[in-house]
Amino acid sequence: MSGGVDSAVAAARIAEAGHDVTGVHLALSANPQSYRTGARGCCTIEDSRDARRAADVIGIPFYIWDMAERFHRDVVEDFVSEYAAGRTPNPCLRCNEKIKFEAVLDRAVALGFDAVATGHHARLADGVLRRSADPDKDQSYVLGVLTRDQLSRAIFPLGDSTKAQVRREAAERGLTVADKPDSHDVCFIADGDTRGFLAGRLGADEGPIVDALTGDVVGTHQGAYGFTVGQRKGLHIDRPAQDGRPRYVLSIEPVSNTVTVGPRSALEVRSISAVRPVWNGPIGEPREPLDCTVQLRAHGEVYGCRAQVSGDTLHIELDGAATGVAAGQAAVLYAGDAVIGSATISGAV
Amino acid sequence: MLPEAIEAMAAQLGQVGNASALHAAGRRVRRVVEESRESIAEALGARPSEVVFTSGGTESDNLAIKGLYWARRASGATRVLVSAVEHHAVLDPAAWLGDHQGAKVELLPVDEHGRVQPDTLRTAVEKDPDSVALVSVMWANNEVGTVQPVRVLAAVAHDHGIPFHTDSVQAVGQLPVSFAESGVDALTVSGHKIGGPIGVGALLLARGVDPIPVLHGGGQERDVRSGTLDAPAIAGLAAAVRIAAETRDEHAKKLTELRDDLIERVRRAVPDARLNGDPVNRLPGNAHFSFPGCEGDALLMLLDAKGVECSTGSACSAGVAQPSHVLLAMGADAALARGSLRFTLGHTSTQADVDRLVEVIGPAVERARRAGLS
């Protein structure tokens, strides 16, 4: 229970359905901002209070589990090292994989619980993960990395509802978080300045920005980790491109610390490889090309494709061109609205 | 709350009047307040003029620590000696004085049972007696139940003319507490720990001990504490203190029997459970254990689900369990400190409660161990 409206309503629904429910709020930071810095100063108070208040209204026990160390190791450090390696990680997905449905789930099972329920907007029935009834809020993408085992102990009570319905229900249930704003951005970067956050951990590391068409150095950057494939803004290129068209980040090369830019057309890819595949859906892993669809980033477009596994690599041939495909993001495969599996993008041409 | 305290408080709730007013209604309320003051003084071995009403233990501790420091600072006494196992209502004001008011705070170490040895205090004081503003050592510890040699410690401070405060929130009602016999200069009492109302307490202040106020205003209480007196709560407090004193022997005997049974049978159910605190000098209603390999939080949750309510000690403001400063001061390592639980018995506790705990503690510990330390 994060202290937001979704997990509060999720808890209320399963409690009402007759499950023996215990609310858990995760303390994820050892040194967060706080109202109070006294002898015991720690932790964000507002969210944990909101979560506790919701649990009280619902009438379930409530505990705070300290997952700060695990979160720092498995999510924050992973986030930093992925950027340092020239990739673009999705920390929410990592948190689901390593914290909510691994650290929390394992502990819960050891303590005698059967499952972990969350306020994610996704449907899960008969072990099959599907998109939410609310397409704008669908979170099946960030859950697509979960294994069958993990899904077998997951419950998503909000899958059939829209966000508007959830908020309305929260108000009817007397939950004060009914109109609390949605959370945005990366939860552990309070000011939203990802580049500043990374610079503080990785330090400035000046390097060239190279135009892919001419091979010319067209600018300098303060750290290749501050860029994402497909990015157009904030490149600080100090001369116009020969063709006069805007430049986009095409690739990030951490070893030579080079950011390569080029025209939008050069961003287009049709063929994607992805590693560490997970097969969690109703279909086994495709040894032959499988017609399905793929989503390449959170809230991103969905493309028709043919997907096939060879060895540990998933090959995806898109029906049409995609842009802004960044290594480190997940490729989640769907059959209709059902998740089939996922893998981490390692390259695209 | 004790029924007698509820009755005494309820009888005043509908009454109009300010105890400071001169008219008839004021006089009537003043009479309730002053009779309560006399009754509390008598029960605790103090003079009525030595009873200063406050909003509870935290305010009383703040007034004693900050007020005595401010009063003594002018003469150059800036060292504040407090035991390392104090409640945060003493530790935090002392730390604040250190951070913002020029105090030099020294935490008096304790032995493995949580006791401040008189020689420890003597050595600390005698480094430079004139520089000590005050000494504060609690009567009995709220976590591990250890009872301090308060009378001896107060005498050490008095050898050098240093005021001595004790937080006796846990002691009143369970141990014989006499302000006069203890020799302390300031003593904290709280209402709700003895079956009185929440939000009322007192600081017993010896004559001639005059802290600088924390709350300035009308000066209602000896000019050291301002604020309109809460006559209904004070009446409830007086009733609770009176009952606590009257029934203390019998109550303590019953609690001691239950507690000893609890300790013995928990040890039998969980042979490696470690009893914390002083084996002899401890509060009758306190049993405090460390369960190696368990996280206290997990154990608490499992016990709560089985209808047993206990406590892990301290949590931060956002609710994350912290290793207890009391156990750390007693020499426990952080992991063992985190695997600790306090079982408190009170006037509603029964043999059936102990039986229930003994029945569920073994499986709960086993399960918590499997869940491991997170």
TrEMBL record, chain A:
Cell compartment(s), UniProt: Cytoplasm
Domain (tRNA-specific 2-thiouridylase MnmA-like central) ranges: 196-262
GO cellular component, one term: cytoplasm
Binding site for ATP: L26, G119
Protein EC: 2.8.1.13
Keyword Lipid metabolism: no
Site (Interaction with tRNA): H120, Q329
The keyword Repeat is assigned to this record: no
A GO term for molecular function: ATP binding
Region (Interaction with tRNA): 137-139
UniProt keyword annotations, A-Z: ATP-binding, Cytoplasm, Disulfide bond, Nucleotide-binding, RNA-binding, Transferase, tRNA processing, tRNA-binding
Pfam families per record: tRNA_Me_trans, tRNA_Me_trans_C, tRNA_Me_trans_M
InterPro entries xref list: MnmA-like, MnmA-like_C, MnmA-like_central, MnmA-like_central_sf, Rossmann-like_a/b/a_fold
Transmembrane segments: none
Alphabetical list of Gene3D superfamilies matching this protein: Adenine nucleotide alpha hydrolases-like domains, HUPs, Translation factors
Function: Catalyzes the 2-thiolation of uridine at the wobble position (U34) of tRNA, leading to the formation of s(2)U34.
NCBIfam families per the UniProt record, alphabetical: PRK00143.1 (NF001138), trmU (TIGR00420)
Name listed for the protein in its UniProt record: tRNA-specific 2-thiouridylase MnmA
TrEMBL record, chain B:
Gene3D superfamilies xref list: 1.10.260.50, Aspartate Aminotransferase, domain 1, Type I PLP-dependent aspartate aminotransferase-like (Major domain)
Annotated Aminotransferase class V domain residues: 4-357
Organism: Sinosporangium album
Enzyme Commission numbers on file: 2.8.1.7
Family recorded in the similarity comment: Belongs to the class-V pyridoxal-phosphate-dependent aminotransferase family. NifS/IscS subfamily.
Top enzyme category: transferase
Lineage: superkingdom: Bacteria
GO molecular function, one term: cysteine desulfurase activity
Keyword Iron carried by entry: yes
Name this protein carries in UniProt: cysteine desulfurase
Cofactor(s) of this protein: pyridoxal 5'-phosphate
InterPro entries documented for this protein: Aminotrans_V_dom, Aminotrans_V_PyrdxlP_BS, Cysteine_dSase, PyrdxlP-dep_Trfase, PyrdxlP-dep_Trfase_major, PyrdxlP-dep_Trfase_small
Catalysed reactions, semicolon-separated: (sulfur carrier)-H + L-cysteine = (sulfur carrier)-SH + L-alanine
UniProt entry keywords in alphabetical sequence: Iron, Iron-sulfur, Metal-binding, Pyridoxal phosphate, Transferase
